[in-house]
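ugh ok so i messed up the first submission bc i forgot one of the chains. this is the corrected input, ALL of the components this time, i swear. 232 residues overall. if the numbers dont match what u have on ur side tell me asap before i send this to the collaborators (the ones from the other lab, u know who)
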Amino acid sequence: QSVLAQPPSVSATPGQKVTISCSGSSSNIGDNYVSWYQQLPGTAPKLLIYDNNKRPSGIPDRFSGSKSGTSATLGITGLQTGDEADYYCGTWDSSLSAVVFGGGTNLTVL
Amino acid sequence: QVQLQESGPGLVKPSQTLSLTCTVSGGSISSGSSYWSWIRQPAGEGLEWIGRIYTSGSTNYNPSLKSRVTISVDTSKNQFSLKLSSVTAADTAVYYCARDRHSSGWTYFDFWGQGTLVTVSS
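and heres the new structure output, hopefully the right one now
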């Protein structure tokens, strides 16, 4: 049971937009910045978004992040088959004094 | 470009201690405001943060693992290490090391090792 709640799976067709939600509480998302990670099959996670909505160098602007209250959202536009992966949100939990992650969302691009 | 590489035994017996080392290249482990973390992922499951260390030696551990975890750093070798004691089959996972950018209110992992599978079995 993950501290942050994500939908187990989402799907969309190439070229479309998809959003992935991440729901938490006042002690984690509500109080701290959120990051997002992409994990392609068989590889290590890769940082996509940090500080709620910032993209590291090299991450295309098709990927975006937002936060409102105790929830965060990852958006991906212009979907490509290469975007098929697991996506995780993460943040610090001030009550637990630990980094917490969502359970992950598997994106299928049909 | 910072690179991280995990190393250590791939098989550990139940009740023994799991020991892994992460070697950092492409930059000094002591540079900037970087922490260094261990994260694990059981097969088919999500990510679990184990703990972090600052180059001063200060540590934070996941409360769920705190009693069994020790993370240490060797700045002379540009390495940091993980020890997890009294392991069981539930500790079987891919273990990742990562650079941890952390300050009050924010934390994220910008560079990751490729991961190493550790299996706990007799």
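quick check: The first strand of chain A starts at residue 9 and ends at 12. that seems consistent at least. The beta strands of chain A are 9-12, 18-23, 34-39, 46-49, 63-68, 71-76, 85-93, 98-101, 105-109.
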